[in-house]
Amino acid sequence: MTFTQFPMQREIVLTAGDTTVGVMPEISLVSHFQVKNWPVLYRARETGNIKRWGMPLMIPNFSRLKQGIFQDKGTTLPIHGFGRNLPWDVIQQDASSVTIQLTSNEHTRPQYPYEFVFTANIVAGEGTLTYTLTMENHSDEVMPIAPGFHPYFTVAQKDKADITVEGLPDIDPRTIQWATQPPDQPNPFPHSVTVHMPQEGVLTIAEQPVDGHYSLSTMQVWSEPSTAPDHAFVCFEPVVTSEDGLNRPADRLNIAPNSAQQIILKLSAQPY
C-alpha cells in the first residue's frame, strides 16, 4: 500500500553509505532498516498496522505482568509498557543519527511512579544499526525496569523453515509449524545471535557490553500464523527478562537512586 511506503512524512531518515534507517519519534519506533536492497525490518503493508512494524522499544516493561499488576507499587502496566504510546522529543539529529527522549510526566506517574529520563540514540552505520538506550533514575529510591526490543524481521512465509539460527540451540526453524503454530517462547540470549535469512542475507543481533556488563538475558522468538493478515516476519526479540520479570527483583534491572544504566543493541546486516 502506498501509505506505508518509505519514507512516510513523519519518518526521520538516517543514512550511512548504502544503509538507510527510519525513525518515528512520536512512538519511539525504529521504522526502517535497509542495507542495499534488503529491507531488514518489516513494514505491515497489508494492514498498515503500526504495531506490526520495524523495531519498537518496549519500556519500562517488555513482558506481560500477572494480572497486569506492577507489584512494587500496586499499579497497572500494560504488556510492552507505555513507551511506544507516548511522544518522544527529538533532542539531537544529523545525517546518520538521531537522539530522542521521554521524561516522566502526568501520563507515566500513575502507572510507574518514578522520576525518569529515557534517552534513545539511534545511529546508522555501514550495514549496521546501533541503538543506545540510557535510563536515568531521578528518584530517591531504586527504579525497577525491564525493557526490551521487539524487532520484526522481513521473511516470506515460504522461506521461514529455511532460516538458520546460530546461538539459539532450542530453535530449529525446520521443525516449526510456521503456518499454524509459530513459536512464542523465551530462550537464553548469549549476547549475540546470527540469523541467515533465505534470499536476503546474514543478520547479527548483538548486545554490546557496558562497563563489562550485559543487560539483555532473554531472546523471545515469535511470529504470526499464515491466517494473520500481516505475517511475513519473524521476531527475534532481545529483552531483559521473560514474562512477569518486572516483578522479579533478581531478573529485572534495578537502577540506583539518582543514577543511570545503558543498554546498547547492534544489528548488523550483510546481504547475499
TrEMBL record:
GO terms for molecular function: carbohydrate binding; isomerase activity. InterPro entries: Aldose_1/G6P_1-epimerase, Gal_mutarotase_sf_dom, GH-type_carb-bd. It comes from Dictyobacter kobayashii. One of its GO terms (biological process) is carbohydrate metabolic process. This is Aldose 1-epimerase.
